[in-house]
User: Which sequence fits this backbone?
């Protein structure tokens, strides 16, 4: 399975932007880049996903490098509720058959 | 987003007994459901993939006779932990995928085997 590499932890101040990096140098042309986050004792929550172009939604933005070997999840204004483990995942395979294989993720701490 | 529920949210059972965990997609039909387990301070580990009406596909190292998965309908999948032991204590999370590929996760079930 294609793997991702993320920093173990990051810190941010409340109301400041946060850039969470992810390296995926072995990504193939059909792999989608997914981001999920997980709060303690809860199931993961979908954040955003993309293939080649940058993506925006109400939660975050996803910036994908031109060579697709890395991506960055951008939280525009961090709040205390954004403190979670953020997982960058490559979905290998088609949209109907691929599996989500979780790595270790980045633990984001948000300081008031 | 779509809602996935799990029942029970937490369960305590004695060693040697079996426990069934239900996963339901509440407002959509799931073509595929997944079961994960998560140990404290660890990441999620995929256990198996199930499609409605067919046998589940287990990941390497996961015992299919110990973790029985039944995907009875497009909205319900169950995981039965048979002859549970303390090392089976974990956080079990199901996930359901819709036709267009989005995947949603349940809130998890905390299993404690005493």
Assistant:
């Amino acid at each position: 399975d294609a793997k991702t590499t993320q920093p173990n932890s990051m810190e941010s101040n409340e109301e400041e932007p946060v850039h969470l990096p992810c390296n995926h140098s072995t990504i193939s042309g059909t792999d989608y880049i997914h981001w999920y986050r997980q709060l303690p004792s809860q199931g993961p929550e979908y954040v955003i996903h993309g293939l080649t172009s940058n993506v925006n939604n109400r939660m975050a933005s996803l910036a994908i490098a031109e060579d697709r070997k890395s991506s960055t999840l951008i939280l525009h204004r961090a709040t205390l509720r954004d403190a979670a483990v953020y997982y960058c995942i490559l979905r290998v395979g088609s949209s109907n058959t691929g599996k989500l294989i979780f790595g270790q993720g980045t633990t984001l701490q948000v300081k008031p | 987003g779509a809602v996935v529920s799990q029942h029970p949210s937490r369960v305590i059972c004695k060693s040697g007994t079996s426990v069934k965990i239900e996963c339901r997609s509440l407002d959509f039909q799931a073509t595929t459901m997944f079961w994960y387990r998560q140990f404290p301070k660890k990441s999620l580990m995929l256990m198996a993939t199930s499609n409605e009406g067919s046998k589940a596909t287990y990941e390497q190292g996961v015992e299919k006779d110990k973790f029985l998965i039944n995907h009875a309908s497009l909205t319900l999948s169950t995981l039965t932990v048979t002859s549970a032991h303390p090392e089976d204590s974990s956080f079990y999370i199901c996930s359901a995928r819709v036709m267009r590929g989005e995947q949603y996760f349940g809130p998890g079930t905390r299993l404690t085997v005493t």
